Amino acid sequence: CSSDLVPFPRLPRARGIWQVVLLTSLLVLLLLGSGDGSPAGAAEAGAESRLGELDRFWARIARAVREGDFEAYQATCHPDGVLVRGAARTTLPLTEALAGWKAGFVETRSGRVKAGVEFRFSQRLGEASSAHETGIFHYFTITADGERKESYVHFEAVLIKRGGWQTLTEYQKAPATRAEWEALK
User: Fold this and answer.
1) What is the fold of 54-183?
2) Is 14 left (phi over 0), alpha (psi -120 to 50) or beta?
3) In terms of C-beta distances under 8 Å and separation of at least 24 residues, what long-range contacts does 153-159 make, across chains too?
4) CA distance linking residue 121 with residue 123, whole number of Å
5) Domain limits of the chain?
6) pLDDT tens-place string over residues 65-117
């Protein structure tokens, strides 16, 4: 050991201060553990928080569909949002799509029809105020006479957070199969 490379000054009073600083630093690092305060740790915590918020967003949509609550569903859509229908190769402002879907919400709220929607995801990208979600949704209706109609649809959604999450773009890409749906469990 070279006497030139000493980690602490050799002054008796200063040595105690440096030991306190070193021990305090080590203690802080140990307490932080896996949440080490690093950018990666902070990003992971942020992603978990965002995904929790988005899970609640999709749950609000599912509840609105199940209860026939058109206003609650409409609130999840950005006023300038766009619906992309891949199979029809068309786009439509979400406000126009909502106008077309409103009758289904009224039927559900009245009890003449039961409806539901579920979401499963294959990819979830984003940060604190924007997200891109890819997956499949399963939508179904049951009429008063018991007729059940269901569809599985590959979709992508671009979401923006301005106070709360809203759909900016809903891209209904193509029909999906039940097997594809089950694979996303």
Assistant:
1) Nuclear Transport Factor 2; Chain: A, (3.10.450)
2) alpha
3) 154/86, 154/180, 156/132, 157/131, 157/132, 157/133, 158/130, 158/131, 158/132, 159/54, 159/57, 159/126, 159/130, 159/131, 159/132, 159/133
4) 6
5) 54-183
6) 999 999 999 999 999 999 999 999 999 999 999 999 999 999 999 999 999 99
